[in-house]
Amino acid sequence: MECKVTWMGNDGMSFVAQTGSGHLVAMDGAPEGGGHNLAPRPMEMVLLGTGGCTAYDVVLILKRGRHDVRGCSVTLQADRAAEDPKVFTRIHFKFTVTGRNLNPATVERAVQLSHDKYCSASIMLAKTAEISHSVELVEV
Q: Is domain 42-139 given the CATH code 3.30.70.1520 in the classification?
């Protein structure tokens, strides 16, 4: 896996990243850090990438088990250390999974498998952060 991050010039703290698969992502800093608040912060990107990684796992696990999953979202709430390096110290994942006749234990197991075995991002972040999660099921 490879990506390239390029600073957009000396009038701010904006960057453009190009992924190995050819996609572009903008990032920017907060105004107090010299940014213009035009795009997500790099650490927000880490958090949202982790959410994408684990939601992907949960949907894939449920689909492979032939469960009638219709939707999945995850809201992440995180705290960071006050001092540099400002690593994540706590992350709570709130999953909302929509479907028909979903078994709560099955969905919980899919979430647990993601956090314990499959989601590289959350497993890495668990080295510095206390990870917790909750699951809400919505019947459609």
A: no
